[in-house]
């Protein structure tokens, strides 16, 4: 059921316009409860409680630069990729956006590091910087 709430221009009442009927303040309480229940059910099915965008991607630092790895969309694995054998560092980029009008919240977290290669990782990160927009 698709519809919308609006305030009638000349009347100080709220109305719900659905696909078949117009309900106003004179409608019975049972009818109002039925409308509210249907609107809540529709919102829940449409994903109103979910964020607009939510994905994560792994990046592996190798001697040849950054290589993309696994990819998750809304927590579900979309792309399974084995990490390269010559990786020195694995970073996960997480992007969430609460609505279509809000900014993306981008964060990076270190998932794995080759022990004892701190100097080489530092040099490679200077040579191949990981961009926020990668």
Give a description of the structure.
This protein is of the alpha+beta class and 134 residues long. The protein has two domains: 4-45, no CATH class; 53-127, no CATH class. It has helices at 29-45, 118-127, and strands at residues 4-7, 14-17, 22-23, 53-62, 65-73, 76-79, 89-97, 105-113. The chain has a five-stranded antiparallel β-sheet, covered by helices on one side. A hairpin with a 2-residue loop joins β4 (53-62) and β5 (65-73).
What is the average of the pLDDT values?
A: 76
**How does the overall form come out from the CA principal axes?**
elongated
Strand percent estimate: 35-45%
The tally of structural domains comes to 2
Number of strands: 8
Explain the layout of strands and helices.
Elements: E1 4-7, E2 14-17, E3 22-23, H1 29-45, E4 53-62, E5 65-73, E6 76-79, E7 89-97, E8 105-113, H2 118-127
Antiparallel strand pairs: 1-2, 2-3, 4-5, 4-7, 5-6, 7-8
């Amino acid at each position: 059921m698709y519809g919308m709430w609006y305030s009638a221009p000349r009347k100080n009442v709220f109305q719900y316009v659905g696909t078949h009927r117009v309900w106003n303040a004179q409608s019975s309480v049972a009818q109002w409860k039925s409308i509210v229940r249907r609107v809540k059910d529709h919102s829940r099915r449409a994903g109103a409680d979910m964020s607009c965008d939510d994905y994560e991607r792994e990046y592996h630092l190798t001697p040849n630069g950054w290589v993309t790895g696994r990819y998750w969309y809304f927590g579900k694995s979309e792309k399974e990729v084995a990490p390269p054998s010559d990786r020195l560092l694995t970073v996960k980029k997480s992007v969430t956006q609460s609505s279509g009008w809000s900014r993306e919240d981008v964060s990076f977290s270190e998932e794995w590091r080759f022990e004892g290669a701190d100097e080489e990782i530092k040099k490679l990160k200077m040579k191949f910087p990981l961009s926020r927009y990668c």
